[in-house]
Amino acid sequence: MTSHTAERFIQELKQHQNEADKEKMKKFFKDSEESTKCFGLKMRTVFQTAKQFIDMPLIEIEQLLESNYYEVRMGAVSIMDFQAKAKKQSEEHKQALYELYMRRHDRINNWDFVDRAAPSVIGSYLLDKPKDDLYKMARSLNIWERRTAIVSTLSFIKTGNTEDTFAIAEILVNDSEELINKAVGSLIREAGKKDEDKLKSFLNKHASTMPRITLRYAIEKLDKSTRDYYLNFRNS
Question: Three-state secondary structure along 159-223?
């Protein structure tokens, strides 16, 4: 629909802006670029508005990604997520979404932008394809590309494939950034729900040297005695 334009979407968001909530919102994009601004919107409002604009053309979505406003970029990745998950979505459009995400990763530059769209737009698209791009991103100097690499594998885990999660975690296990440490811990924890032996094997190799926060996230769902074992392993 021609009414599903970037301009109309931004106008819709502006109707809900809240000066009082602007300071609260800043915690969500504290790791983003300094030029980022916000309207002070609740995320529920952004997601609901994005759902109303699910038919937005990719060229308009890219315009949203250009915005300095946090909620506008969150709206862009949310529309991409909704489109990627849409039933009977064409393979051609999924490919176009994938290419847009990869090409404009410079604007998908906050942890929650990545977490919102990477599993559906990147991971789901790559389910039956070579995963080379993920391994390339895992070695990137860009923190958000590294986060995309590991977070995208959530889609693989849901189908029972944990191999790439652990392989990419192996690359990122000693990353210097906490946002990567947390993501690695979370994803190997999820993979461990499917294959606990692989998780334990990974921990046996890395628990003594991996960042403590990664270990804590990774062992969260294991039984207490196993958690204690690995925590002591870390301290020994």
Answer: CCCCHHHHHHHHHHCCCCCHHHHHHHHHHHHHHHHHCHHHHHHHHHHHCCCCCHHHHHHHHCCCC
